[in-house]
Amino acid sequence: MGSLNQEHYGQGDNVARDKNLFIENYNTFINLTVPEDLREPVKEILSDISNRKIVDAKKKIDLIASIKNQTKEVNDLFLLLRIKADLVEDANSHSEFSILNEIVLSSNNEMIKDLSLSLLLRLEFNKFGKDRMMDRYNATDVKGPFSRALLLELTLSEEVLQERASTGKHGLTEEELIGLISGLFRVKNFETALDVAIFLVDYFPSYNSRVIHLFARGMLLNQDIVGDDYWLLSQKEKDRITSLIEETLKLYTESEGNDFRLFNVIVPCYLFTKESDERLRDICKKNIESVDKIDHEFANDFRILHLNDQEQESHPVNIIKKCQHDNAYKDSVIKGVLSNDLISLSDFILVRGLIEDTSLIDWIDKGGLLQTDTAKLSELFSKLKLYLYVEQNDVSRRNSKIVDDIIEEIVNYDSNDFKSINSTFIFNISEDLRVVERNNHLCEIMGKYFDNKHSYWCSPIVYQYLIGLFETGLYQAFSSLYDIVDNTDKPILIHTMALSIYYSHNEMEKALSLIEEHNANQDLDFIRLKLHVFEKSGDFSAIEKVVNNIDYKNFNEPTNSLLRLSDKIISLGYTSFGHDLAIKFFLDSPEKNYMFVSHICLRIMMSNRSNHEFIPSDDVEGVVCGVSYNDNGKELTKIIVAGSSINSNYFMSSDSPVAKVLLNSKLDEVNKVGMKRLILKERMPPYVAVLRLAHEIRNESNDGTDLFQSISLPSDPEEMINVIKDFLPKKEPKQDLNINENIPVNFRLDLIAKNEQVKASLISLTDKNIKIKDFEAGGDDIEGDISTDIFTICYICINSFVNFFIEKDIKFLLIEEDAKAIKLWLEAIEEDEYKTIGLNENGNININTSESIKTYHGEFIKNLHDIQKIIRIHYPKIGNIPNELNILRKFVGDDYLKNIYTSITNKTPYFTADLMANIYFRKVLNMKVIDFHKYINEAVKYTPYRERERGVLLHSAGMYPYPLSIGDIYNLAYSKNDETGYFLGELIKLYSGRFNDNINLYALMSQLFFRYLQKTYMNNQIFNGGIKKTDFSFINPYGAKIDRIFYICCEAIMKMKNDLTCEQNLARFLVFLLCQFTSNMKFLNLIFWLASNFISGHFLSMDKLNECLEELMVIEE
């Protein structure tokens, strides 16, 4: 109806009542209509009915109704109250029209008349509809609050209800206000309904008012989040649900579980919150029949899952239980399911938990599918579920193309299409993706599923997505999501990840702000990162405050997080923390904690930074000291514990006879205790004993999986060397990765020397077994600062090209870790702290020290110092690591990955001596790269030969690529640093068969040979000396190898790519050599003798060679 007016519904005042009354309450109404002696009981009954204390109300009704000699009005009243109680308890309760109608017509009591009319009108509305109900309402003169409330609840329009809520609620009774709220529910104006409900609670405070208020809140909340998923709500929306649940629990407790209405909130909330609230679960367990009335199907599942209901035999849970004890039944279940080509998701989950062989994989391979709705996206997700199962259970089929293709098709769908997919299913899919290490695909799918709201609460799926983004290196996406996820439910792990990102990207302001926000948190990983941040910002007072606030006594068991934290604290110089922690955990349990304790002790031993000199303390609570002693010929180390009765392989009580003797004994003094003969060898601080004992246990417990091993060395030098040899890893002369020049050398550095980039780069540049691809032209010009890597820095330094780049004022950008690695390497060399030991290819011990490195790489070290002038540190900007770069995580070091990521996020061009890496960056990562070939050739022209000869020598020995010029080869032929011609010969062999076609190879080889002769022998020795035929080979092993150089030149000539025979090419070389330089017969004889030896050694024809020579000599003449 559109409005309240007399034409249709009688006098309007009968609804609105007296406008001058503030509130018409039941007290006034009851006082006017009910006998005085029954007023209080009626009030109590009505209150019980309103508050759903139906059992109490009926007891009171029955008690009063049992009293004899009551008037008809009283009997009618309590009959109506009984009917009202029945209807409240069960809205479908049967009631006779005739009874109610007779009371309406015959009663003279206004309250009884109104109450019976309201009940009659409700029944009439339910059975015959609104019009019949209004006919009766308009035909009745007496209309009290009960019937007026019914009119508000069932018939009035939204406009009228809104008007009454805005201006008329102060003139309504409690019953009418409830009717108004119900009416507003009917027209779905939940916001106004909540306003009226708040008014109801304020002015008619009662349990029932609070329940109505609860429903008003719930209805409005339901309207606001309809169609949304619990895991994708904002924190504000989630808090509203939490608050609703808390209020429901209070009302449930207050009603002692007797108000069925509450289950209309309890069950939906439990289901909407993914059945995660244990309190609601407990209520459902205790009131399963009430739950059944709300949702029968859910109640059946709940009975099986939580109440061990065995009656539903076909339910998957009961099937699984039966299969655990009946193999034949299990086989029949599996066979029955897999006999179908199309099965439900629940059947798939069922057999997945039962199958122990490959039959389910075979079923999938044969085309088995899951039932889905008609949507293509659902079908794709179902296929993905199946093939992820295959990858989980068959490692050989990981990273399959079929899964790649399915995911590629899935992520091509619009985000709106994902709304039809259940979030729990998406979460489970993400779990499957994590298992098979497909985090990048997890993030792609999650990114499609999230609807780009302005905020989220940190639900399990949001938490999963954040972790996936972080682990995949999608730091920009992580940060964007992190900023819009409310902190209320955000675990400290997520804050730790954020802090890690801010720290690694040098976002120090954000890092310090985050630390301040969560400064009180005691998470160990967060504390460790705090120390990193304070160290980087130079706030050492903050570091000291953090360390001093950590009490080692609070740690009850060793964890990886504690180990990482202790490593950091020790590295900052606070070795006493490690000292105390090691002793504590060893005293707690040597066998359980030895690995942890050993690690801490080693970290203290290797720490080169301390805020004071590390001296193990003699004053340790509960410990007297450590002792090393001889017990009847057996050497033992033990810790003497004060006042304890403990005695074991590691401890002895200070009250024991042995301890008392040792504590009072002098060193090497023989003492007798019973049958024991004791000799004290050493008294030591507790920490020293802990260190020795922990290492001893670690040695004895090593099953081959622990790299740690301590050894005892004999005093004899030769025996000592043999023992060391046995323990050193054997060097493999060739490895597939090393000999494959198509693999970027930077990708191999971590395999060559893990976490030692300078060392690995030097090995790469000086080990001829490690192949590096030659340079090729291609790339951009240098227009500003350029990113680079340690390998390239080392290449420039070993070849002495540093001054070229300094002169050009070219700045090299390195990440902080790489710049620090170079600095630490130089410091170790200069401070004589560098030492490595290993076996060479021949099985001999090879020791490198700071001194040997200085001797062999002195120029390199100088250049590495000089290049510091043009090295600048740059930090990555928060971005996303491309998947093409992410796939390298398993092969390259973290620092190198960060280096490339930094270049990408800063959009700085990359400059590298690693050609294959250059190609990968340009073609796969679409990075801007510098033409290394161009600039290194310019550096060669700029740098005098004498400064870069070492590079030419290493290149000639096949160590690494080099921009060689013809002049370099001539200079090498003259060089006094190659007296034997070894490097010249190796250089010619290196280029044999691949010299530039524009080079006159006859001229080049003849000039090189002649210049080598000029360097080695005076002209008069060659042309005027009395050289005998038998003296031509120059067999002196320490002298020049003229024959060797000649033969190498001949072999280079033979490998020329032209249409001439070997003899024709050799003839041209000989003619060029003889005619170009001299006609001296003795020299001619020397050349012919060398040529004759070469011809005979290579099965060539001397006759053909002579013929060719005669033809060429004629032409020459």
Main sheet: strands, sense, barrel: 5 strands, mixed
The chain-level mean pLDDT equals 86
Rounded Rg:
46 Å
Q: What structural class is derived from the secondary structure elements?
A: mainly alpha
Give the assembly state of these chains: single chain
Distance between the termini: 129 Å
Q: List low-confidence stretches.
A: 1-25, 1018-1039
Q: Total number of β-strand segments?
A: 12
Task: Name the strands of the widest sheet in spatial order.
Answer: 5-4-3-7-6
Question: Per the principal axes of the C-alpha atoms, what is the gross shape?
Answer: elongated
Number of helices: 60
**Strand residue content:** under 5%
The percent of residues in helical segments reads 55-70%
